Amino acid sequence: NLMTQAAPVTEMEENDTNTSDKVTVQGGIAGAILIIFCLTFCFFGYRFFHVTMYLIGFYFFANFTYVIMANCGVTSPTLLLVISVVIGILGGLLLVCCSRLGVAVLGGFALYSLGLWILGWKSGGLITSGTGRGILLAVLAIVGFILGFIREHEMVIIGSAIVGAYSFFAGVDFYAQTGFINQTD
Questions:
Q1: What is the rounded distance in angstroms from the CA atom of residue 174 to the CA atom of residue 176?
Q2: Dihedral, 167, 170, 171, 172 alpha carbons, nearest 10
Q3: Which of 88, 109, 83, 92 is nearest to 26 (CA)?
Q4: Other C-beta atoms within 10 Å of 172: how many?
Q5: Contact, 63 vs 184, CB < 8 A?
Q6: Which of 138, 108, 139, 137 is closest to 125 using CA atoms?
Q7: What's this model's pTM, rounded to 2 decimal places?
Q8: Tens-digit pLDDT profile for the chain (185 aa)?
C-alpha cells in the first residue's frame, strides 16, 4: 500500500523533552499582541490616527524597555513581559498627547524595521559586522525619524504599513518559530 510507505520512519515519543519547538505563554501573548497590532497598522493606520499613535508608542517603548532589560541581564520572561507592557502603556499615552513626535517615532521605527528585514535577507545577516549592522539601523532610524517630521501624512500611511507587516511576521514567528524574530537579536 502506497499510504503505509509514506508513514514516518520513527514517531516522536510523548515524553520528548525538546522544548525548543514549544510556544511559551509569554511568547504566545507577545505573538498575539504583534498580530493584533499588524491588523490595526496595516489597515487602519491613518484612519485611526490616535489609535495608531497609541500603538506605536506602546510598541516602541515596550520594545525599547525589553531590549534594555535583556541587555542588563534580566532573564525572567515574565518580568520582561510585564515591565515591557507597563512601560509600553505609558509610552502609548505619551505619544497620543504628542502626536507629532509620535509620527516621527513611527517613521524611525518603520525604517528600523525595514533595516531588520534587509538584514534578514541572508542567514546570519546581510551585513556580518556588528558595527555595520548598527550603523545601517541607526542611519535608517534617524532618516525615518526626520521624515516623520517633514512628511507627516505620508509617513503615517507608509510607516504604519511597514511596521504592520513586520509585526505580523514577527508575531507569527512566535508560533511558527522559523527564526525570523531571532534576526532582531
A1: 6
A2: 130
A3: 83
A4: 17
A5: no
A6: 137
A7: 0.74
A8: 333 333 334 444 444 444 456 778 777 887 888 888 788 888 877 788 888 899 889 888 988 898 899 888 888 888 888 999 999 999 999 999 998 999 999 999 899 989 988 887 777 777 878 888 889 999 999 999 999 999 998 998 899 898 888 888 888 888 887 766 666 55
